[in-house]
Amino acid sequence: MNLEDIKKITVLGSGVMGHGIAQGFAMGGYPVTIYDINDIVLGLAGSHIKESLDLFCESGIYSMDETKKMMAGITTTTDLKKAVEDSDFIIEVIPEVVDLKQKVLKQVESYCRKETIIASNTSHLKVSDVFATLEDQTRGVGAHYFNPPQICPTVEVVKGKHTSDQTLQITYDLMKKIGKDPVKLHKDVVGLVVNRLQTALLREAFYLHEQGVISAEDIDKAVKGSLGFRAASIGPMAMVDMAAWMPGWIAVKSFCLSWILLLKRLKR
C-alpha cells in the first residue's frame, strides 16, 4: 500500500478523542466512518463535531460550504464489519483496556482487507501489546493524538515491535497530509514521549507545591511566562542549544523569528 491508496478512514470509538480524530480526517479531505456500540453516543459525537466545525466557520477558518462538505463526509454505524470492510486506514480509540482492544481488533482484522493499516491511539499501553493477537502485526502502528485532536498539531507515530517500516512511514505521511505535525517514535515505550515529559514536569511541580515553595497559581504563571512560552515555539532541546551555544543576540533573534513564524502559521 502507498499513501495514495488511502481513500477511506474508519475511527473506532466516538468519545472526546474519537470524534475529534474523525473531524481532523474530514478536515483533511477524507471520508470517515465512526463506529461505536450504540446510536446515542454516535449522535452525541455528531453534535460535537458540528459544534466544533461551526466554531471553525465562525472564526473564518472554513466557509459554510466547506464545513457542510466535511459533515457530509462523516458517517456513523454500530456495525463493526460495515465500518471496516472497505476502509484503508483504521484507528482505534477504544478504552485503555488491553483485553478489550485486542478482542475488537481481532474482529477488525477478520473483516478488513489484508493491506489495511490498523492504528492505535493508545499512550498508556505498549503498541506492541495492543496488536499482539493479530495474525499480521506488521500493519499495526501507534498514532497518538492530543486533546483536542482536531486542533493540536502533534501526533506521535509509534513503531511497535513488529510494525513494518512501510506502515510507519505511510502513517507518518498521512498525518502530514491532513495537516498534522507528526513525530516518529522508533521504540515502543509506555507513556510514549510527550506524556513522559509532562509527567516529569508535573511530578516536580507537585513536589514544589507540597513543600510550600510556591503556590499552584504561581507555578502556572511561572511556567506560562518562561519555559512554556519558549517551548511553544522552539522546544526544550533547542532551548538548551540557545542558552549554551549561541551568542545572546543570535538567541534573541532566533526566538523572535520562531514566534513570528508561529503567529503566521496560526493565522492560516
Explain the overall architecture.
This protein is an alpha/beta fold. It has two domains: 3-185, NAD(P)-binding Rossmann-like Domain (Rossmann fold); 194-267, N-(1-d-carboxylethyl)-l-norvaline Dehydrogenase, domain 2. It has twelve helices and eight strands. It has helices at residues 16-27, 39-58, 64-72, 80-84, 98-111, 127-130, 165-177, 194-210, 216-224, 227-231, 235-244, 248-267, and strands at residues 9-12, 32-35, 74-77, 89-92, 117-120, 140-144, 156-158, 183-185. An eight-stranded mixed beta sheet has the order 3-2-1-4-5-6-7-8, with helices on both faces. β5, α6 and β6 form a beta-alpha-beta unit. α1 (16-27) packs across α2 (39-58). The mean pLDDT is 91.
Topology readout:
Layout (H helix, E strand, L loop, with lengths): L8 E4 L3 H12 L4 E4 L3 H20 L5 H9 L1 E4 L2 H5 L4 E4 L5 H14 L5 E4 L6 H4 L9 E5 L11 E3 L6 H13 L5 E3 L8 H17 L5 H9 L2 H5 L3 H10 L3 H20 L1
Parallel strand pairs: 1-2, 1-4, 2-3, 4-5, 5-6, 7-8
Antiparallel strand pairs: 6-7
Helix pairs in contact: 1-2
Overall shape: it is globular
DSSP strand content: 5-15%
Any idea how many domains? Answer: 2
- What proportion of the residues is helical, as a percent range? 40-55%
Q: What is the CATH T-level topology of the largest domain?
A: Rossmann fold
| Uncertain residue segments | none
Instruction: Tell me the total number of β-strands.
Output: 8
CATH level-1 class of the largest domain: Alpha Beta
Question: N-to-C SSE series?
Answer: EHEHHEHEHEHEEHEHHHHH
What's the quick description here?
The chain has helices spanning 16-27, 39-58, 64-72, 80-84, 98-111, 127-130, 165-177, 194-210, 216-224, 227-231, 235-244, 248-267, and strands spanning 9-12, 32-35, 74-77, 89-92, 117-120, 140-144, 156-158, 183-185. With 268 residues, the protein is α/β, with parallel strands linked by helices. The chain has 2 domains: 3-185, Rossmann fold (3-Layer(aba) Sandwich), CATH 3.40.50.720; 194-267, N-(1-d-carboxylethyl)-l-norvaline Dehydrogenase, domain 2.
